[in-house]
Design a protein that fits this description.
Elements (H helix, E strand, L loop, with lengths): L10 H4 L8 H4 L3 E2 L2 H9 L10 E4 L4 H9 L7 E7 L2 E6 H6 L1 H4 L7 E4 L5 E6 L3 E4 L5
């Protein structure tokens, strides 16, 4: 098991100049192995369905947080996958409250998966979320 401090993106959440998450919040972030990340990516479609809803996060942090909260049951755990080597699981509400510490504009394209492994949300580096309601 990978400790959060050893995770390649941990600086985003443990650095005082970035997220500076509490120890309690950090303890709820569970890094996945490279093998697990690769398995998720291998099943991920390149394009989202044509009917996917889009949300422009440049509307503001709080509006984005409220939109995210409306998508999924509060108690759900989700998995974020940045690439074929980098993924972690965390409670949905932690993602919602700190979404901009996980989604960096201009650099990140990430996929989010439900506990079932179903892809339901994508963040694009140009600051737009895509939501596939058929995955719910």
């Amino acid at each position: 098991m990978i400790k959060i401090e050893d995770f390649s993106l941990a600086w985003r959440w443990i650095s005082a100049s970035h997220g500076d998450f509490s120890k309690d919040t950090l303890s709820k972030l569970t890094p996945l192995s490279e093998e697990q990340a690769r398995a998720l990516i291998a099943t991920t479609p390149i394009n989202f369905p044509v009917g996917a809803k889009r949300f422009d996060s440049t509307e503001g942090n709080e509006l984005t947080r409220q939109w995210l909260i409306s998508l999924v049951n509060d108690s759900q755990t989700v998995t974020i996958c940045w690439d074929q080597e980098t993924a972690l699981t965390l409670p949905w509400l932690i993602f919602c409250d700190h979404w901009n510490d996980f989604c960096y504009p201009s650099s990140d394209d990430i996929n989010l998966y439900l506990e079932s492994g179903e892809l339901f949300l994508r963040w694009n580096h140009y600051e737009v979320f895509e939501f596939d309601s058929s995955a719910m």
